[in-house]
Design a protein that fits this description.
The complex is a heterodimer of chains A (673) and B (293). Chain A has 44 helices and no strands. By secondary structure, chain A is mainly alpha-helical. Chain A has a domain of 101 residues. The mean pLDDT of chain A is 92. Chain B has 293 residues and is of the alpha/beta class. Chain B has two domains: 67 residues, Chemotaxis Receptor Methyltransferase Cher, domain 1 (Orthogonal Bundle); 198 residues, Vaccinia Virus protein VP39 (Rossmann fold, 3-Layer(aba) Sandwich). Chain B is 39% helix and 18% strand. Chain B contains nine helices and ten strands. At the A-B interface, helix 17, helix 21, helix 24, helix 26 and helix 28 of A face helix 1, helix 2 and helix 3 of B.
Chain lengths: 673, 293
């Protein structure tokens, strides 16, 4: 599009034409004049303004743009332009704290808060000095905007300033600070928080902070909030109580006693939250109900577990309930099938764990319920019964469990497989006998192969060989994986045939299995796999040959470095490094200039195998990579090299690292902990 | 059962973050670091199905396998939370029938139209879609109108259930008895009446796919309740833009009770109703009726 056409489109009456014109401007190599950027930012249509924000962020006249935007933020009546200006300043104005301070002083009353908002959007910690003064000023709107800006910037200093002002007598400001600290995830100690939340209105927005104190004294306030008429307040309080109970381990029993003795209104709120709350609230409520051993809420808790919203702490607390839970669980027989399924499974496992404390009559009842439910019409119940036989199963059950392996339900088959695996350790002969007539061509073929792999017998291997002829590729794949246990020459040949299987996943399994076998017979089919038309096969074959130390394959694997698929190049480089190929160094150089993360990471791994000086220099290039996982790998490899130079490099990287997990990896590697 | 047992491959924090970000880019759903156990538990089913032993290998599968696209869909399916029930958040539904529907009706009639379009964005197994249709029907305001309630979800499994329209007791935990007349008892559970079903339509749609969302057309009201809470900020913004685009001017957006747009967007305006706060696509000043003094 020519300049004139673009200009015409920029002034079109159709907002979408204007938006496209602004987008095209951002593609012009010569950049866009400031006046045009400002004009686009003040467009009446939000879509055009959004495009203009991206355009402005690319400007070459950054200083002039910042000056112009600061003027517009305080002078314009156009709300769209002001919001756009604030957003652009947030992107481009880092390192200009003094300019903001001047603009703030010059701004009229009522407009200053917009400058402060923009200060926050920059996320520049150098703004904090100015914000500290503004938060103490007399203009409540500006002070509240300064609080919000500090929250945007975050960090220890911003949090410290907010905590210092918690005792402000201005309610509006205090609420802003409390909300800010909540969003920042700050832990305010109980002694500091209590004076700030004496006021009932303030307390209503402080539930999360109260929960984070970890102090049992916070519970009384939270119990009051849990019965609030507003579902938001009540939900927040219940979540906070759950957090308090999790955090305050030393006081947990004291908290549980207090919760168990709480009023009916609290129980009601808990029950309602369990039924109708959002996921986080149900999660918290389920945990509390189990901690309080509230039998009336048990069905709702089991529902939460069935809906997969209960966290591991809740499940753990359920196990800690112990044998006293068994009878209430067995009373859930008439509940929804998913609820009954969980009840049966927990009751079966609890009775097994506490065998000596469970009456024989109860044990017999559970056993007969399992037998009955093993042929239930509901998959969830049938799966629970099968799973329960991990504990209660004996040779009599093997046949019924094998029948479960022909179920079309994945859940039922998985549970039966798990039970048969457990039984294969206790009564292998009975399991093998039951599997003799099993249908490897049915839906459970892969599961049968899985169980057979646990039986260390010739009979099991013969059965598995039959599975290689299955029509179902899932079964053939599982059989190939299972045959890895029989490391023999004739097996290598059989698995070699599977490299020519018509299904890609069977081929991958075959290549991998061959890679694990010690016989040299495996090398020939693996070499043919290097020519596969499928990239994952070529990659797996290279890796397998590398692991097998098949140095004769080096020339062919080197050729894969020219492959167009990153997965293949990465695998070839890994393989060549394992094979100690002399040309690895050159390949590393190319890999560290490759755009694909996986190739780059393979380059780092290969560099790590080079002489120490080269390894330090090349691996450290990973520290500057934009992907956090690549930086993590570089850190791991540098820590492994552990020289004075690598420690210096890591210390320098720590100063500029922004990702918390990567930072932690460096800190714990360098300083322990 | 596996909900209670920790058997199977384990997911370390690095693998979790890689998988989490991958799935997030695809469908917007976001898991905080402290919910890695959910991802681990739910994805184990996929690993087992594919015969894969480690999550690192599963990540590679999603990156490079020829069937990666289909697998990503399957992963998103197991990772999404599909828990819902009829007449959820009744106070909001009251606002919908008593305050929103009359306004929407008047606006449609002013346009000379007798058509009502409602979108349930992220409808899961369909309870909300049918609830909306029942509520519209029960008002009696739309006799002889063309009523279309469209529900979408990223999970094909829940859409199958939605189309079947047959539900067990868990879906009726907040049921309002006066609406019992819209259900027929069957051996499999309670089935929604064919008249209500005929108003309801379903589609497989990823809310992150803005172009494909054009299928929805223009709607008068969008329900997007307890969906955005599972998204990160950037994805939430993207979905809200899509919803905005799909709404008629003056159309309403209803979020779940724990959700608000305070931190997300300023494009919508707030509409304060008697029993609830909802959001609205602004009507340009030029289209507003003249002010009366």
């Amino acid at each position: 599009m020519t300049g004139d056409r673009l200009e015409e489109a920029f002034h079109s009456a159709d907002p979408d034409v204007r938006r496209q014109a602004v987008h095209r401007m951002s593609l012009r190599p010569q950049g866009t004049p400031l006046t045009q950027i400002l004009s686009a930012l003040s467009d009446a249509d939000w879509r055009v303004r959004r495009e203009a924000i991206s355009l402005a962020a690319q400007t070459r006249e950054k200083d002039a743009l910042i000056d112009a935007l600061l003027v517009r933020v305080v002078e314009t009546e156009n709300i769209g332009l002001r919001n756009a200006a604030i957003e652009v300043l947030g992107v481009v104005a880092q390192g200009n704290a003094d300019k903001f301070a001047t603009a703030c002083q010059a701004a009229g009353e009522g407009m200053r808060k917009f400058v402060v908002e923009a200060m926050g959007k920059t996320r520049d910690p150098r703004m904090i000095d100015h914000l500290e003064l503004l938060i103490q000023g007399s203009d409540a709107n500006v002070a509240a905007a300064a609080v919000e800006a500090l929250v945007c910037i975050g960090g220890a200093r911003a949090e410290g300033l907010l905590k210092e002002r918690l005792s402000t007598p201005h309610l509006f400001l205090r609420i802003s600070i409390l909300e800010g600290l909540t969003r920042l995830g700050t832990r305010v100690p109980w002694d500091e928080l209590r004076p700030a939340v004496e006021d009932a209105i303030v307390r209503r927005i402080s539930a999360e902070l109260l929960g984070r104190t970890g102090e049992p004294q916070a519970l009384e306030f939270l119990l009051e909030l849990a019965t609030d008429a507003s579902p938001q307040t009540s939900s927040a309080a219940l979540r906070a109580i759950a957090e308090l109970a999790e955090e305050a381990e030393a006081h947990r029993s004291e908290l549980i006693d207090r919760l168990s003795a709480s009023k009916e209104s609290f129980r009601h709120a808990l029950h309602e939250a369990l039924l109708h709350g959002d996921t986080a609230t149900r999660q918290g409520a389920a945990y509390l109900a189990v901690l309080c051993r509230d039998e009336n809420s048990l069905e709702a808790v089991l529902h939460a577990i069935a809906d997969d919203v209960a966290n591991p702490e809740t499940v753990e607390a359920l196990w800690s309930w112990g044998p006293a839970l068994i009878e209430p669980l067995l009373m859930q027989r008439r509940s929804e099938p998913r609820v009954w399924a969980i009840s049966l499974e927990v009751a079966a496992e609890l009775s097994y764990r506490h065998l000596d404390r469970v009456p024989a009559g109860t044990r017999d009842r559970i056993r007969s319920l399992i037998e009955r439910d093993l042929s239930d019409t509901t998959d969830a119940v049938r799966a629970a019964a099968a799973e329960s036989l991990r504990w209660w199963g004996d040779p009599r059950d093997c046949r019924a469990l094998v029948e479960c392996l022909s179920s079309p339900s994945h859940q039922v088959r998985a549970a039966a497989t798990s039970a048969l695996e457990a039984l294969a350790k206790r009564v292998p002969a009975a399991v093998e006998e039951a599997l003799e007539r099993a249908d490897l061509d049915g839906p459970g073929g892969a599961d049968i192969a899985h169980v057979l792999s646990r039986l260390d017998s010739d009979g099991a291997v013969d059965l598995l060989k039959r599975g290689l002829h299955s029509c179902d590729p899932r079964t053939r794949r599982a059989v190939v994986q299972a045959l890895a246990m029989a490391d023999a020459t004739d097996m290598a040949q059989l698995i070699g045939y599977a490299v020519a299987d018509e299904d890609l996943d069977v081929q991958i399994a075959a290549v991998r299995t061959l890679g694990q076998m010690s016989t040299v017979e495996a090398n020939a089919p693996l070499s043919t796999a290097l020519d596969s038309p499928f990239p994952p096969i070529r990659a797996e074959a290279a890796l397998a040959l590398g692991r097998r130390d098949a140095s004769a394959s080096i020339p062919r694997i080197r050729a894969l470095l020219q492959d167009k698929e990153p997965v293949v190049i990465a695998a070839a480089l890994d393989a060549l490094a394992w094979l100690k190929d002399a040309e690895v160094a050159a390949a590393v150089d190319r890999a560290l200039s490759h755009a694909d993360d996986e190739v780059f990471q393979a380059g780092l791994r290969a560099a790590h195998t080079l002489p120490a000086r080269d390894a330090e220099r090349l691996v450290s290039r990973g520290l500057q990579h934009s992907a956090w996982n690549v930086r993590m790998l570089a850190i791991k490899l540098l820590l492994d090299l552990d020289t004075e130079r690598t420690r210096t490099l890591l210390t320098e990287a720590l100063a500029s690292e922004s990702d918390s997990m990567v930072k932690h990896a460096i800190e714990s590697g360098l300083f322990g902990g | 059962m596996t909900l209670l047992h920790a058997a199977g491959p384990t997911l370390d924090l690095k693998e979790f973050r890689l998988l989490r970000d991958f799935v997030n880019q695809f469908c917007g759903i976001y898991f905080a670091d402290d919910s890695s156990y959910i991802v681990e538990r739910r994805l184990r089913e996929r690993l087992r199905e594919l015969g894969i032993d480690e999550f690192a290998e599963y990540y590679r599968y999603l990156q490079y396998h020829p069937r990666a696209d289909a697998e990503l869909e399957a992963a998103a399916e197991v990772l999404t939370t599909n828990e819902t029930y009829f007449f959820r958040e009744a106070y909001q539904l009251r606002a919908f029938t008593e305050e929103i529907l009359p306004v929407v009706r008047a606006r449609a009639l002013a346009r000379g139209s007798k058509r009502l379009d409602v979108w349930s964005a992220g409808c899961s197994s369909g309870e909300e879609v049918y609830t909306i249709a029942m509520l519209v029907d029960a008002t009696g305001l739309f006799e002889g109108w063309d009523i279309r309630v469209f529900g979408n979800d990223i999970s094909r499994r829940v859409l199958r259930k939605a189309r079947g329209a047959t539900y067990s007791s868990a879906s009726f935990r907040a049921m309002i008895p006066e609406y019992d007349r819209y259900f027929i008892d069957t051996d499999e559970g309670r089935q929604v009446h064919p008249r209500i079903r005929s108003m309801c339509h379903f589609g497989h749609l990823n809310l992150m796919n803005q172009r494909r969302a054009a299928i929805v057309g223009r709607v008068d009201v969008t329900f997007c309740r307890n969906v955005l809470i599972y998204f990160d900020d950037a994805s939430r913004r993207k979905v809200l833009d899509t919803i905005y685009e799909r709404l008629n001017r003056g159309g309403y957006l209803l979020l779940g009770h724990s959700e608000s747009l305070l931190q997300s967007t300023t494009t919508f305006e707030i509409a304060q109703l008697t029993t609830d706060i909802v959001y609205r696509r602004p009507i340009p000043y030029t289209e507003l009726p003249p002010r009366r003094f």
